[in-house]
Amino acid sequence: MVKGAEDFRYQIWPVNETHLWIERFGNQIAPMPHWRAVKANFVATVALSRNLYPINGLKSENLVTSALHGGASQPEKLKYQIQRSKQTRSNSTDNTISLVGEDSVENDVDEEEHGTEDGPIPGIRASSCEMAQSQPHVEGLMEGEEFAITGMIPESTILDTILQVVQVLHQLSIYRIEVPRPIHVRILQTIQKSDSEQLTTSLDTRWSDGSTWVRILEMGSCASIRATVLNMVEYMGAWAWFDEQCQHAKATVYTKKGRLVDRRGGASYVLDMLQQHQTGATTPEKWISGVGPVTVRAIRDTANCDGKTTQLRKRIINQLHRGQKLSKLVKAVGLGILLGPKIWDYTKMSWKQFDALIEMIQSDHRKMNLYKVLSPQVEQLVHQGLPDLHAFYNDLESEKLIPASQVNQLRMEYVLDSDALPDAQLDAAVDQLIQLIGSKVLNNLPDKNSSVSVNGSAEISCTIFEQLRPGTWMSDEIIMAAMETIDKPAFVRHGLSIPLDKIDRHGQMWAIERPFTGWAKKMASYRRDTEEAGSLVYFCPINHQNNHYSLLEINERERKIRHFDSLAGKDRHDRVSSLIKKEFAGLRYSYEEATTPQQTDNWSCGTRVIWNLKRLANGLPIGIWDTVHDSNRMALEIVDGLTACVEDGRVIKYRD
């Protein structure tokens, strides 16, 4: 055994730390969290292309614009700047996903021949097993260029860079979690079913606005971005660990000639040890009575050694090179560079180009200030899982990186769910919807005698669309109309609101003894009609004393009943719980007062029932108790869905 090896193994290489780094990067060709997100996003994309959730007549350009920008019209000046940004950006077709590194297997191989700032990385060479292959260049490694990058990456203007960064921060703020796994399970189950099994309802009534699918795809894209940033942090940590181990090896590990190893020898030793732990290629020992432990020479499978071991070493070297370059870049420019739109392109430069890049950035005081104000955003993303978009806007203003007018345009364009939507903007959207119904459906302005059908619904008076305005309480009819437009899996059913109370002719309100009797019969009818389609999930609004709505879910798949109340209170909880236990006792399902974001006004309960149903029906989260959602912005989403329904001919005149 090499002199000093035991000291190295037990004093500077704790097993738990070694395994930590092996698990983080030892098995990867590309970052695993990133590729999981990409694969999940691909599954959702396939489902969308196959029209698994019906979106007949969907206008994709309107859909994407509405979903990404909250239905708000884009300021003309900023629109021009965004288009200009797209034109000047190289090799990028999606500016919101440009941060994600799509590294190929070829890159994994080529990066083994990178150099450090002082030349090639000492010790990054072939193991004894790799030497069996004819690779005479591996021993010394190539100096100079590492990739066929013919020139520096075209540099964006400061406004281009800020636009791209804001888009990334906006996505990370809006989509805080990955797409839930049950969604992917449902998609695969739907793909595997025959067409006859999928069509449990009439195809003509299965239209939806498709905005939920855009949300799913955006969540998948955002998960890739978040995972990529965390991967870069991992690479830097792995490089710092590797560099420290090499320094320690130089002081503790000796060559066969009894001399301390140099940097190259130390690095090679650390890599050999890392591979040994990963592959389990330890030298076996056997105890012989009267002799003691005897080392048994293992007969290696040459083919397996040449393949698996070589690829493992190249993967590790590739990721260490990434960590080395990222560490140098962060030290020179700041942590905020990790959110830069071209970060992966930077890591693929030659060292000569890389050093020139650093000098160029350092000479641009505005970009240095940009990466300085981005550093807290990276820290918050790592610590809390999401950045602070509003703080970034404030920093842009305080540092005067762009004019205040452009910062305000960004604030209007890239908003969060909690940002207040002006009443005038919601009113304008409602006016547009009513005018569209008049021109496209009625051929006249709607009045109190006009009625329509929304996506196959029953008759609806056109006057109810006025209930979409700010501060207006919704009735059963508008809730039903909005529910007809949302994306729903084939196993989801919804019904009209169920009143828990009735008002007699004298205006006296009385509690209904068994309010869910009719809904239970309707559920039984749904179950008979779709007996071969598997378990169903039922949703229905609940009307409390004619002044508040909540949402009830009865889930046959999970054998659970959940109540979602945006104005939760003990009295209402006790009453609903008691009625459920009495009327659905035969199901033997568990009951839960589910976590629901709370309203702070006295009118948005109906809006929130629709908004919650749209997400819950598709397995998407709605938030926790203290999650803030602006009521006007939620109502605007409903208006956008109804507008898309009118534009695609799914709203028709009920009678001539």
UniProtKB/TrEMBL annotation:
<keyword id="KW-0378">Hydrolase</keyword>
<feature type="compositionally biased region" description="Polar residues">
    <location>
        <begin position="84"/>
        <end position="98"/>
    </location>
</feature>
<protein>
    <recommendedName>
        <fullName>Ubiquitin-like protease family profile domain-containing protein</fullName>
    </recommendedName>
</protein>
<dbReference type="GO" id="GO:0006508">
    <property type="term" value="P:proteolysis"/>
</dbReference>
<dbReference type="GO" id="GO:0019783">
    <property type="term" value="F:ubiquitin-like protein peptidase activity"/>
</dbReference>
<keyword id="KW-0645">Protease</keyword>
<dbReference type="InterPro" id="IPR038765">
    <property type="entry name" value="Papain-like_cys_pep_sf"/>
</dbReference>
<feature type="region of interest" description="Disordered">
    <location>
        <begin position="84"/>
        <end position="125"/>
    </location>
</feature>
<dbReference type="Pfam" id="PF02902">
    <property type="entry name" value="Peptidase_C48"/>
</dbReference>
<dbReference type="GO" id="GO:0008234">
    <property type="term" value="F:cysteine-type peptidase activity"/>
</dbReference>
<feature type="compositionally biased region" description="Acidic residues">
    <location>
        <begin position="103"/>
        <end position="115"/>
    </location>
</feature>
<feature type="domain" description="Ubiquitin-like protease family profile">
    <location>
        <begin position="458"/>
        <end position="616"/>
    </location>
</feature>
<dbReference type="InterPro" id="IPR003653">
    <property type="entry name" value="Peptidase_C48_C"/>
</dbReference>
<comment type="similarity">
    <text>Belongs to the peptidase C48 family.</text>
</comment>
